[in-house]
Amino acid sequence: MQLKSKLITFGGALCFFISVKVLAADTLNAPAPVLPGLYADPHIAAFGKRFYLYPTTDGTVGWMSTHFTCWSSADLVRWKPEGTILDLPKDVSWGPIRAWAPAIAQKDNRYYYYFSADVNIGVAVADKPTGPFKDALGKPLVPKGMLRGQMIDPMVFIDDDGAAYLYFGQGNCNAVKLNSDMVSYDSTAIISFKPQGYNEGSFVFKRKGIYYLMWSEFDTRDPRYSVAYATSRSPLGPFTRATSNPVLKASGVVKGAGHHSVVQVPGKDEWYIAYHRFKIPDGNGYNRETCISPMRFDKDGNILPVDVFEKVKPVTIRRLK
Question: What is the pTM of this model?
């Protein structure tokens, strides 16, 4: 009995030691950000054989950036700066400041870049994913004050039939089908709703016939900033909130993990989530950095919790037949 007791004690101590080591690794060793410097609100996309990131330039109190950049990668790991693709003071007459949270969509070999400028939403167009982009309208696509909440954080989802849908808004989630020109819509057809916990940063994708609406909860200056989701059989809902939320959240040294986007590796059921977190160390809601993590599903299509400490391995886009 004495030997058995000692073995149990030793086994318990060993388990405790292992647990402490795992806990230390989980809380102290986050992967490096994928972009150098301070960037937030990343929109990730795949065009051709490359991945692209379109972030907010961060690092100023009040988020006072005036330009947007693009980054490209052949493997999700090494990112090349493609330079400034839209400069608000030079390229946008109606919104010279507060360049926030862009998104991009491709249709008919043209690239449509949706962006926030001075709490309005605009759209610019280019023939390449790296721009340069030109303001398509000379005015906001969605002007400030049009609806409740802030008119920010655009995202466009293109369905299998080619129909495009615009999602946007802080405080409320707003959704509307775009016209075929990608730069206009019927304002009377806008649907506004607020999922439980919704704050901002909506993102929609489709997998195996299910539409996933994701969003950020809390405020981006709050360490609890996180991502939740709901599902539907229609791009315009109604959406049913998942029971496993949030799927992306703070852990250990990773704080304020949110305002994400999702990319599918073309031709594969392989998914990645791009998001920002407080800069490590000493970051906050004005000093954030961009990260990428694998995103997986269970057999029922539920999004599994994202491991913010998992490093991304190089990914290659194969040429589709």
Answer: 0.91
